[in-house]
What does this fold into?
Amino acid sequence: MKKLRIKDIAKDLNISKTAVSFILNGRAQEKRISGELVERVEKYIQEVGFRPSSIARGLRTGKSHIIGLMVESISDPFFATIARLIENEAYKEGYRIIYCSTDNDTEKTKELINVLRERNVDGYIISPPPGVEKEINELIKAGMPVVMFDRYLAKVKTDYVVIDNEFSAENATRYLLKQGYRNIGFITFSSTLTQMKGRMKGYRNALREEGWKPYVLEIDFTPDEKVMVQTIKDFLVANPKLDAVLFGAVQAGSCGLKAMTQLKMKVPQDLAVISFDDHDIFELFATPVTAIAQPIEKIAHKVISLLLDRLDAENGAGDVKEIILKTRLKVRASSGVKA
Amino acid sequence: MKKLRIKDIAKDLNISKTAVSFILNGRAQEKRISGELVERVEKYIQEVGFRPSSIARGLRTGKSHIIGLMVESISDPFFATIARLIENEAYKEGYRIIYCSTDNDTEKTKELINVLRERNVDGYIISPPPGVEKEINELIKAGMPVVMFDRYLAKVKTDYVVIDNEFSAENATRYLLKQGYRNIGFITFSSTLTQMKGRMKGYRNALREEGWKPYVLEIDFTPDEKVMVQTIKDFLVANPKLDAVLFGAVQAGSCGLKAMTQLKMKVPQDLAVISFDDHDIFELFATPVTAIAQPIEKIAHKVISLLLDRLDAENGAGDVKEIILKTRLKVRASSGVKA
DNA sequence: CTGAAAGCGCTAACAC
DNA sequence: GTGTTAGCGCTTTCAG
It folds into this structure.
């Protein structure tokens, strides 16, 4: 069973290659091809399972119908979920996904952008590390649709979808204050990314207004979780006055809970907790953990819609859309009223 | 800044297209091209950031340097982690990944195989649903390398990497028996897949030998977790004699823990627990949960190595490799000695 | 509706 | 080392 070509099926059916091509591309009507022929061809194609080579088509048309998805790590539950939702919607429109994990590494990301570029992907969905402004701007200048999400780059003028990080952090911190906590820490990954800056700012805002002191720990992300857990333990031990902590990301929260478990700290008696991102672990933790839930479905939907819109728009133009979505504070027992 | 072609850079450098092509493909030595020229070309390519179109190359050579990865769902933490590890190793060898989620749906998977096929992917990594034997066999007959993992299809003769499901389940069940539990349930997703069959068999074996009665719940997977949690709650309520339960998969375990939490059951006093797959939630649950940990890194490594081996082997031949890896029972408090 | 022909960008065989 | 050429499989224009 060797690979069929358009030529083959034209020969088999005793018709012209051109006709087959038109039918394949749904331009039969426009080209005034009889419904009878169309039917015959479609039936035959169905029968022998013919599929035109999308690679040849891609070379000819310049379109690959592939979307490049670049995230920090595809194994991160947040990104994995987004990836899944995007895959679904893209699939319906005939697009496939090539994904890459950037590790939030600037150089790796630059290289990956080139790789996707040489593969002629039609559009990009990027959760960018810092420092790739130039490369992304080149992409845009070359007419490629690009949508950023989770964070954005101020110097890149293109669509993005993010959440209201500053408000969310401020709101959560205020909530802890309202519950009676006064020495509230903020533990997050060190990052110059917009979303982390926003979270930090919101946290500081809330404390400043009430005149309380911030306690911040920025951990370096490492694949070795134990190291991060230890860092958090050290921080908690060094700051015994802390009575609450806000985690800036789900992995930070997860490491934090492990640290607290190892230190045998009780939640919320010894330490109240709120974390960004909702996750099973927060629901199932001994004391269920209050979480700042991102509207994941909505984010994914917005991201892929924006991209598909640009992909459809022949003219490529259109205003830059900056979407900022709201989060939801899912209150659980970990942020109960201070004893 | 428009797209460069080989022709352009040949012209710019006043040399032949052929030479550039050879240099690009590392065949300079073989073609006796002077090191001086090679250097000059490479420098220029570097400078202008030229990248040959991999799509044109693909059309010409029939190789796309893309690997198709099909899993049940890319958002499943097990598969997401595997995907990440595979991506890393594949990347080093110059391969990219296109991924698809099958939802374990036979028809969707058939369609996806065709999609990947028309994209000329060079190799397939598949965690197959049942019923796609014919399609995969056609792939193999067409000379495509295919590696299955997590489960395999008996009627498909190709490499696969799985864990020793039967032994793992039997071992875990025995452990519960040893700890004094007698009425041990098995809760899993209904599935005709080899891995689930193996787990079921191991569970039954252990009980049969000791003469205890099995209690099995097979839940239908639905994206709506609440439904599954409710099913488990009903089962637990209907079987008050149960003193322990083995979960056949991480999602089953996670739903089960939610069900037990809602029923205010104490672990392990009311119900001892062991689950397949290790995960943060098991480590962080109020009573840490004993887990049957799969060697994820090893699985990913084996899978991609097998595929790369076949990709390298011009002849495509070679014996079918069937890799069965061992799991590790990570004992935690949820399976403590029966009170 | 057909048939011929050009061309997407690259590889590789061939003659020089 | 160069220059030419064919061809991968498709789309698309053009003349019939």
Q: What stands out?
A: The mean pLDDT of chain B is 93. Chain B touches chain A through 50 residues (CB under 8 Å). Chain B is about 45% helix and 15% strand. The longest strand of chain B covers residues 66-71.
